[in-house]
Design goal:
By secondary structure, the protein is an alpha/beta fold. The protein contains 13 helices and 24 strands.
Length: 468
């Protein structure tokens, strides 16, 4: 496997934008007219339009969360956001047919080059819609479907509609309702029974416009005994005004299936990243989230797994890095709903300057279940005396015969350790970076090779400005 990264997440790589040229623009603000405009442009079936309008009512009826990060959320003015921007073209299967201005963006980010190297399929979304979607011939011949969500709901309704909105209901939270009202873009993947996709499928989500909201909707279904790895990357240029990213991701792993979902986000510091992600694991199925949260003004993201079938397994492995003026409010949700289910949560956070990292987790085991197991580990590293970390684990285990263990630690970079390394010829920044990489090294090893090298590089970049 190539050692080059699939997504170069150096912040300077993503901090650029091109002039806007959009054929379709829903305008500023959110009303029924906005939702109907999106449905008209996308030529939605009647059931989708009805779904959207009901979701808008739910969104308007729900207050903003008040028990955490409420002050940060108050900075979002939903009537100053643009909810749909697109050029109207169908996602092309040929890179040569992608519009030149959009092609320049993704070529600068290295997408086509990495596709040629080792990916089984790629989707590239620019603002509201996918502009490119392709799957390798051999994978397509196995019956694997990998298309945008719009194409999926129209061309594969018998599979799509069965699971759409079932793992994450519209009313789950205010931001899942917002996504349900204005969703556009995202991926739809179906893997037939017994098919093991050998190479990763990847999507890349790019926000180019100012005052914009990106609301992709992803649905992945792995049928019995199948396996798939999906990777997503996200960037946006830095603007002075707030940008909103509010995605919904639903995973369904049927009996004996395995889904691995890997995210590396490198949003600029003006992005509010408010995402709902959940998987449903049937008997002996496995869902694993690998999550790296870097950048953004505020991230609120808690990937979850509902273990519905006997011997199902759920896992969340996450790294969060909060720099100056950033709040990474991340965690995991594990709901045990069958006997002999197993969940594992490993979370590591780094807070720099006045950055704040928060772990917020939920583990639930009802009293009628037997032989369920959970392991939760939350470790935080503070770089400066002004940085902050908080841990809010909510673990509810009832009945007998179940096992749960929880471990949490907070540590600060040792001045003695830094001094020792500087005596060996390292600069203070290099010494700090080495300490941080050592802190996350056991988790980084679980990332694909294509990411682990870049994660180390990004940490080096972040630590350069943390000393002094």
């Amino acid at each position: 496997m190539a050692t080059e990264t699939t997504i170069d997440i150096d912040r300077s790589i993503g901090d650029f934008s091109y002039p806007e040229q959009h054929t379709f623009d829903a305008g500023i603000g959110l009303t029924r007219d906005t939702v109907n405009y999106i449905s008209d442009v996308k030529n939605d079936p009647d059931w989708v339009r009805e779904f959207r309008l009901k979701a808008l009512e739910v969104f308007e009826s729900k207050p903003l969360p008040t028990h955490w990060a409420s002050k940060d959320l108050e900075a979002i003015d939903f009537q100053k956001i643009r909810y749909y921007l697109a050029n109207g073209q169908r996602a092309t299967r040929s890179w040569d047919e992608v519009p030149e201005d959009v092609k320049r963006t993704f070529e600068r980010l290295g997408i086509p080059e990495q596709e040629r190297k080792f990916l089984a399929g790629v989707e590239a979304q620019f603002d509201s819609e996918a502009v490119y979607s392709n799957i390798k011939k051999a994978v397509g011949e196995q019956g694997v479907i990998f298309v945008g969500s719009t194409e999926g709901l129209k061309e594969h309704p018998e599979i799509f509609r069965k699971w759409f909105g079932k793992v994450i209901p519209t009313g789950d939270n205010k931001f899942s309702a917002l996504n349900s009202a204005v969703f556009s873009g995202g991926s739809f993947i179906y893997v037939p029974p017994g098919v093991k996709v050998k190479h990763p499928l990847q999507a890349y989500f790019r926000i180019n416009a100012e005052n914009f909201g990106q609301f992709e909707r992803t649905l992945i279904i792995a049928d019995e005994g199948s396996e798939v790895m999906y990777m997503e990357g996200c960037t946006a240029p830095k603007f002075e005004t707030a940008t909103l990213h509010s995605a919904v991701v639903e995973l369904v792993a049927m009996k004996g299936a395995k889904i691995q979902y890997i995210t590396v986000q490198n949003w600029s510091a003006n992005v509010f990243n408010l995402v709902t992600k959940r998987g449903l694991a049937h008997e002996e199925a496995e869902i694993k989230w690998i999550d790296c949260n870097i950048g953004s003004r505020l991230t609120m993201k808690y990937p979850g797994v509902v273990m519905k079938g006997r011997k199902a397994r759920g896992e969340v492995i996450s790294i969060a890095l909060a720099g100056d003026g950033q709040h990474q409010d991340t965690g995991a949700k594990m709901v045990h709903a069958a006997d002999e289910t197993t969940s594992n949560i490993i979370s590591k956070s780094i807070s720099i300057g006045k950055g704040r990292a928060t772990y917020r987790g939920l583990v639930h085991v009802p009293k009628h279940l037997k032989n369920c197991k959970n392991n939760t580990e939350c470790d935080a590293l503070l770089i400066n005396s002004t940085s902050r970390t908080d841990t809010y684990p909510a673990i509810t285990v009832r009945g007998t015969g179940n096992a749960v263990q929880h471990e949490a630690s907070v540590s600060q970079v040792s001045a003695e350790q830094i001094f020792y390394m500087m005596q060996r010829g390292l600069t203070e920044g290099q010494a700090m970076s080495l300490s941080v990489n050592g802190f996350v090294n056991d988790l980084v090893r679980q990332f694909p090779m294509e990411y682990s090298v870049e994660l180390k590089r990004l940490i080096d970049l972040e630590m350069e400005g943390s000393v002094g």
